[in-house]
Amino acid sequence: MQGYAPDVRAVAGSIVTLDREGEAVIHRGLLREAEAKALRTLEKLRQGFGSMEGEAGNDDEGEDAEQPKAANLSDRLAQRLSAHRTAALQIEVARHPQVALAALVHGMVQAVLQDGHYHDGLPLGVRLTVKDRLESMAPDWPDSPAAVALRELQQVAGEALPQDGAELFTALLAMEQGELVRLLAVCVAATVDVVTPRATAHQPGAELAQAVGLDMAAWWQPTAEGYFKHVSKAVILEAVDEFAPSHAIRLAKLKKADIASEAERLADGTGWMPAVFKSGHHTEPQEGAQDVDAPEDAADEVEAHALAA
User: Fold this and answer.
1) In 141-232, which ranges are continuous DSSP H helix?
2) Distances from the Cα of 117 to the Cαs of 26, 58, 150, 257, 276, in angstroms?
3) Phi, psi of 295 (to 5 degrees)
4) How far apart are the C-alpha atoms of 145 and 134, rounded to whole Å?
């Protein structure tokens, strides 16, 4: 007779039938599907408990080898603990000004002096926005003395710095504080933006300009292409009356293009600047003012008509 486990015999049923010879045949160990499934599950559980200790040990070794213990933390707990780590790191950085300065300059150097992208920046919330739109506003900007001087300064400042983020931070930590501050200034400079979309009564950045002693005459010269051709004939003559008054009447008889060229020549070396560049100046936007780039004959005709009116 086939042997059955005690738990199977306890729930199994049997069927008695007659064979061809009339002999009784007993079919034992018969189970309904639900009962058979329950017994299979029970057997698996028994087998699992028998080897669980050894398997658990093996699983722990595999987990230790593949991932850190922190993986056992819930997301909520991991966030909570990392918040405390952040707080502790914040106070320690506050106590180490040199590290704080190096960390600040680290991100700035990567943004300004190393192709404009953060490679593997430090975990700071400070970000730079480099202002690289000046050429679209002033086509002659790339060749201006100020732009050329800044590019040269950036090249000198960045050429000896390592590109690798970790190496860069190490190098910055080793710098004297004064050297770090100079590097910081080069990077911060690239973020300054005082471009205005139109003539305005208040020029932005006045306090910053005053603090650095900005003198536009050292970085910009009035030329025909850069200024005089873009204002009206009357404005040019008014300017000439300031830096070369003896020539104003003579120039008034010329066409605008010739007046602009003469104004450029006469202004050279005088230090004359448009009012908008003068310290503390507030310029009032003129109604209907625009960049005067119309053909000279048409501009002369419009101006003559206006004077006649």
Assistant:
1) 145-158, 165-173, 177-189, 206-212
2) 84, 45, 19, 45, 35
3) -55, 145
4) 14
Q: Give the CA angle between residues 54, 59, 61 to the nearest 5°.
A: 100
Tokens of 259: 């007046």
Strand partners, 18: 24
For 199, residues 6+ apart whose C-beta sits below 8 A from its C-beta are: 276, 283, 284, 285, 286, 289
SS3 25: strand
pLDDT tens digits, residue range 141-177? Answer: 888 999 999 989 889 988 889 988 889 999 999 999 8
> What is the three-state SS of 42-77?
HHHHHHHHHHHHHHHHHHHHHHHHHCCHHHHCCHHH
Identity (one letter) of the amino acid at 69?
K
Q: What is the pLDDT of residues 5-14, one digit of tens each?
A: 665 556 666 6
